[in-house]
Design brief:
The complex is a heterodimer of chains A (about 210) and B (about 200). By secondary structure, chain A is mostly helical. Chain A has one domain. Chain A is built from 8 helices and no strands. Chain A has helices at about 5-10, 20-45, 55-80, 85-110, 115-120, 130-150, 155-175, 185-210. The relative contact order of chain A is 0.18. With about 200 residues, chain B is mainly alpha-helical. Chain B has helices at about 15-30, 35-55, 60-75, 85-110, 115-125, 135-145, 150-160, 165-170, 175-195. The chains are: A mainly alpha (about 210), B mainly alpha (about 200). The interface of A and B includes residues 8 and 80 of A.
Chain lengths: ~210, ~200
């Protein structure tokens, strides 16, 4: 077909219908992903006993993951289009990350030195990042497929941002089942699981987000 | 490349391409079809020279890429954020499509389809299939003898150069259904060409 007639074909009757913006679509995708993660957690691991929620530790984790969800969704929304101001979402992401590392380091400093390694590794350091990664995968797929219907042009970066968001959602679900108490544990192993999901997202973007 | 800078605001001192299409785009966004067609024409010119400079090895694909980018601009126009100049938005999409083309091209060269080659061999006995009007008309006549679904699939995938996924999005059919239609259609076309008195 010649380009002239192709243009005529595109322009004919091309009224712009309103479609949902990125933020509401992203929230729908994120909620869906979180729901699937919760189902997986409840089915295969089981929630913490009620008494655990009277202590601070699940709330520390949830605060961290919620703040990460907020910052990462901001970044993801920015990368859903060719041009965006990324400085602010990136700054927020760093602030959340560094704050958590700071709290972790501080509590570790307060701990008598023979116990430090126990605090850092807990009982589950080997499974924690992998569990976060696994329960995040459904969110990752849903979020990347959603972003694809917008116009992400920096696929790798956008894929990484999707992975951070998915990882933060997976970590939120996992926080309801995780028996560890130490903020230092959260700062290291949760963060590692989320970053791993980010890396998977950067690679899967070529298949899941191409448009 | 200055058009890829993430600078906001459409200033009077903007890039010449922005001055050309900025207002037309605004009118188009509020439903002016004429302005939209005009804007796409200007984009086509700009895109043609953009791809020409970067696709020396595959000049036959330039026009496909122009159309593919226009289609991308068209289908994604609801995602445009008005705090950025539209010219930079269009060119960023063009750059993305170019990178995607390079990747796809590597793959496509390895997996060239046999049907395509038989068809090409047969059609090149006719005066070549290149861009000239009478041959375009020729293809149109041949295509018009195919069932609607096969014609649509071939037009989108083989003539406009969409990927199966994009074509699926356009038509609402599944990718595999479209691929089957293309194969059947091409088989049918080679039958038609063989039978034709030359």
């Amino acid at each position: 077909m010649k380009t002239d007639s192709f243009i005529a074909f595109l322009a004919k009757g091309a009224q712009l219908e309103p479609k949902p913006a990125i933020t509401p679509r992203l929230w729908v995708a994120a909620s869906l992903g979180l729901l699937v993660s919760l189902v997986i957690i409840v089915t295969f691991i089981g929630l913490l006993p009620k008494a655990a929620f009277a202590t601070a530790s699940p709330w520390v984790k949830l605060t961290y993951t919620f703040l990460l969800v907020a910052a990462a969704s901001h970044l993801t929304a920015g990368l859903s289009q060719p041009l965006a101001h990324l400085a602010r979402p990136l700054k927020r992401l760093w602030i959340v990350l560094l704050a958590m590392l700071g709290v972790g380091a501080w509590t570790l400093y307060q701990t008598p030195s023979p116990d430090r390694l126990d605090h850092l590794l807990g009982q589950t350091w080997l499974v924690c990042p992998w569990t976060v990664l696994l329960v995040s995968l459904p969110s990752l797929v849903v979020i990347q497929r959603t972003l694809r219907t917008f116009a992400p042009t920096q696929l790798r970066e956008a894929g990484f941002a999707c992975g951070l968001l998915a990882g933060a959602l997976g970590a939120t679900a996992y926080a309801l089942a995780c028996p560890e108490d130490s903020p230092a544990f959260v700062a290291i192993w949760y963060t590692l699981g989320i970053l791993m999901t980010g890396v998977v997202g950067a690679f899967s973007s070529r298949w899941l987000m191409r448009w | 490349m200055s058009e890829f800078n993430n600078k906001p605001a459409v200033k009077p001192s903007a890039h010449p391409f922005e001055r050309e299409i900025g207002d037309l785009w605004t009118q188009a966004q509020s439903g002016d079809e004429l302005a939209y067609a005009q804007m796409l024409q200007l984009c086509a010119q700009r895109l043609r020279s953009f791809f020409k400079r970067r696709m020396n090895n595959t000049p036959e694909d330039i026009e496909d890429m122009v159309q593919e980018t226009l289609l991308a601009v068209h289908t994604r126009r609801h995602t445009y954020d008005s705090t950025f100049p539209v010219s930079a938005w269009v060119m960023a999409i063009a750059k993305y499509k170019l990178i995607d083309f390079w990747r796809r091209h590597e793959r496509r060269d390895r997996l060239h389809d046999e049907f395509d080659e038989t068809l090409m061999a047969q059609t090149t006995q006719q005066p070549s299939l290149g861009g000239n009007e009478s041959n375009v008309a020729d293809v149109d006549t041949l295509l018009s003898q195919l069932p609607e679904k096969q014609r649509q699939a071939i037009t989108l995938i083989k003539l406009l150069g969409l990927s199966a996924a994009e074509a699926a999005q356009q038509t609402g059919q599944s990718e595999s259904a479209l691929k089957v239609q293309v194969h059947r259609g091409i088989k049918q076309l080679s039958q038609l060409i063989k039978r034709r008195p030359s």
